[in-house]
Specification:
Length: 499
């Protein structure tokens, strides 16, 4: 019996649609049916697009029937984090303040996906304005980890990670400011790529911390990650920080072995997590190092001495930029307006009711850090430390071809476990934030499982615009291990029913 369609890779689905072995409409229907069954249990979507997805798929089938060439994601369903604009579709960023907002345009990445003949199937749940590590800061709903419904899916792109893990869509997009693609990818047992800062246009991504924000994909294999990254990257004049240096990734290049490859290992970084580092993560990390040695890589000791300041640095820079970016939600231009007498009263009522606790906390932190007299002591100093952190990475990557790091100190934690302790939540980003501050590309890949069956991810970090190399490193591991090919029972049972 052949495997259920929803378990197939994006690469093989696109090939089947292009060659006319399957219709885009059938592919879309299969994933929509899977999501009909699993999404209500998982809370993955804030808004589903079943009708328009089918219409788009049928249009792709008609174009094929006419003999038109199809794009590299022909008929492949893709889910979009709800802080990325899709024309005419509610975009809330998980916030009440944007309730009812429908952007009049597509984000650059959505334009690219459509041009590649992908099918947009919905908007996924996320932490409010992408602030969080568990998706519990969404103003609308909780998302559950497909591997264990009592656990968080990670955040802030928890919906996008969970939807791919549960095979509701083969691909999705999230955004990563300090780990929000990589950490949920690790918690959900899928791939999550944070591209080099500037590799993907931020046009149409609702801004959180502009000097860090980067859109990145989720997928269930290294090759599928490469496929969608090749579609969304590239220069866009509407984002002045986007660069032409990003290049499509060669799938053939991912298959090259690692003979003579120099893999940098910054072992001392494990100590930063102290007691907080789960033995299962340490064990997975050590065993991956051995696996890479067996695969022919040379292990190089490197150090990232300033990464110990990364969390402190990030929690100055990100809130500072957020406080400025979120000033625009004042009840005048977007979404909700609450009126309470005069103009000031309207601002206060709108922002008071519209923003959740975490967002308000960040606005307060950021406004404080940027206020007159404090700027030099906080924001400016944080930017200087950031430069040192970036230099550490570039130095380490001068003597190695890529770095191997953990991505999370523990597997997925329990729902509600950290909601009353923002500092504990912030500390869970300890391994993801350094690469964000450095602006270098970083990938979380499924490495193994702990004794209770929760996925464990590891992280590969590369040189600026060298996404291809980090995907190749992950692909080498994928060829020898089965962590990436396993799917959670909820997806399997449901996919089996659908057969
Ligand atoms: N968890 C981090 C935060 O709360 C990272 C979020 C992100 O990458 N968007 O800011």
């Amino acid at each position: 019996m052949s495997a259920p369609l929803v378990l197939e890779s994006a690469e093989s689905l696109a090939r089947a649609v292009t060659q006319g072995e399957r219709s885009a409409a059938d592919v879309t229907r299969a994933f929509l049916a899977q999501a009909d069954r699993t999404a209500p249990k998982l809370g993955t979507y804030l808004h589903r697009l079943a009708e328009s997805a089918l219409r788009d798929a049928e249009a792709i089938d008609r174009r094929r029937a006419k003999g038109d060439p199809l794009g590299p994601l022909a008929g492949v369903p893709v889910a979009i984090k709800d802080n990325i604009c899709v024309r005419g579709v509610p975009t809330t960023c998980g916030s009440k303040i944007l309730e009812g907002y429908r952007p009049p345009y597509d984000a650059h990445v959505v334009e690219r996906l459509r041009a590649a003949d992908a099918v947009i199937v919905g908007k996924t749940n996320c932490d409010e304005f992408a602030m969080g590590s568990s998706t519990e800061n969404s103003a609308y709903q909780v998302t559950h980890n497909p591997w264990n419904l009592d656990r968080v899916p990670g955040g802030s792109s928890g919906g996008s990670a969970a939807t791919v893990a549960a095979c509701e869509a083969p691909l999705s997009l999230g955004s990563d400011t300090g780990g929000s693609v990589r950490q949920p990818a690790a918690f959900c047992g899928v791939y999550g790529l944070k591209p080099t800062y500037g590799a993907v246009s931020r046009y149409g991504l609702v801004a959180f911390a502009s000097s860090l924000d980067q859109i990145g994909p989720f997928a269930r294999s290294a090759r599928d990650t490469a496929l969608i990254q090749g579609v969304i990257c590239g220069r866009d004049a509407r984002d002045t920080t986007s660069r032409a240096d990003a290049r499509p990734i060669s799938l053939d290049a991912l298959e090259r072995d690692l003979a003579g490859f120099r893999l940098g290992v910054p072992r001392a970084i494990l100590d930063e997590a102290g007691e907080g580092l789960a033995p299962s993560i340490r064990a997975a990390f050590e065993s991956a190092i051995s696996a890479y040695e067996r695969a022919g890589a040379k292990i190089v000791d490197v150090s990232l001495p300033h990464s110990r300041y990364a969390i402190a640095t990030y929690y100055l820079i990100a809130p500072a930029e957020a406080s400025s970016n979120l000033a625009r939600y004042d009840g005048v231009r977007y979404g909700v307006r609450r009126s309470d007498g005069d103009l000031r009263g309207m601002y206060e009522a709108t922002r008071g009711a519209g923003f959740g606790r975490e967002v308000k906390r960040r606005i307060l932190l950021g406004t404080y850090a940027l206020s007159a007299g404090y700027y030099d002591a906080y924001y400016l100093r944080a930017q200087k430390v950031r430069t040192l952190i970036r230099k550490d990475f570039l130095d380490a990557l001068a003597v190695s071809d890529a770095l191997l790091l953990p991505i999370t100190p523990t597997p997925a934690f329990k729902l509600v476990e950290k909601t009353d302790d923002p500092l504990a939540m912030y500390l869970s980003d300890i391994f993801s934030i350094p690469a964000s501050l450095a602006g270098v590309p970083a990938l979380s890949f499924p490495a193994s499982f702990d004794a209770s069956g929760l996925p464990i991810g590891l992280q590969v970090v590369g040189r600026p615009f060298d996404e291809e190399t980090i995907l190749r490193v992950a692909r080498a591991y994928e060829r020898e291990h089965d962590a990436a090919s396993r799917v959670p029972a909820i997806a399997l049972a449901e996919a089996g029913d659908a057969r």
